[in-house]
Design a protein that fits this description.
Elements (H helix, E strand, L loop, with lengths): L1 H15 L3 H34 L5 H10 L5 H12 L14 H25 L3 H9 L4 H11 L1 H16 L3 H7 L9 H11 L2 H28 L1
Helix pairs in contact: 1-11, 2-5, 2-8, 3-5, 4-5, 4-9, 5-8, 5-9, 6-7, 8-11, 10-11
Length: 229
């Protein structure tokens, strides 16, 4: 117990003095996951809007499929992306494997169903009277749609933040696609896994504290946004 307590104190000390390796790994994690959520947002929000605002055969089945992929294992995503970008894969010539870009791709695919499904849910949560009121006041169909999206903006932003949390906390795809290369592709989760196996509790605890802190900030922001919504 004494050893664990000392390791915790040293871990806090590492964070307090802004240890170079701790800051580097943390910033890389934030950069990679931020890039992933931005790319996913550009894809998912429009797709979610299209699915919500259009009625077509199989719509309910499609939404159920999207929701099923909420909990897809990260290692499965990592495996499929690995097969595509490895040297033997169709995208092998791009030499993406074991680069930060590979981790971004894996995280984008991981959070695509989450963001799409939650965007649809956010739009579904808007009272149908909002659209009717906008149309009765002379708004065009596209203007009415933007009105609904505006009403759901806090829930959509909450979905994006949750997606960011899902991306930054995953380890399977990041390990398989990034290779956990020191100074290049090592992120918070993969570094914690490696340093724990090596017995470096101080560094792994420091990184774990930062990851928990990020998760807490995300949770607070999401709750504030949902309360406003």
């Amino acid at each position: 117990m004494q050893e664990l307590w000392e390791a915790l104190v040293q871990a806090v000390s590492l964070i307090a003095r802004l240890d170079g390796e701790v800051i580097e790994i943390s910033l890389r994690s934030l950069y990679v996951s931020a890039a992933a959520i931005l790319i996913a947002a550009v894809i998912c929000v429009p797709i979610g809007g299209i699915i919500h605002f259009h009625d077509f055969k199989g719509k309910r089945v499609l939404i159920n499929v999207i929701q099923t992929f909420y909990s897809i294992p990260t290692v499965v995503v990592g495996l499929f992306v690995f097969l595509f970008i490895s040297r033997a894969g169709p995208l092998g010539g791009l030499e993406l494997l074991f680069t930060p870009a590979a981790i971004v791709i894996g995280q984008v695919i991981l959070i695509l169903p989450v963001l799409t499904g939650m965007t649809i849910a956010a739009l579904n949560g808007v009272d149908r009277a909002v659209k009717d009121t906008a149309l009765s006041l002379g708004a065009s169909g596209s203007q009415a749609i933007w009105t609904i999206i505006g009403e759901a903006r806090f829930a959509v932003v909450g979905a994006l933040i949750l997606g960011f949390g899902r991306a930054i906390s995953e380890v399977g795809a990041a390990m398989m696609l990034g290779g956990n290369i020191r100074g290049y592709t090592r992120v918070l989760t993969t570094a914690i896994s490696l340093e724990t196996q090596r017995g470096d509790l101080v560094l792994s605890l420091a990184l774990g504290i930062i990851l928990i802190g990020i998760a807490m900030v995300i949770s607070v922001i999401v709750n504030i946004l949902l309360q406003r919504y």
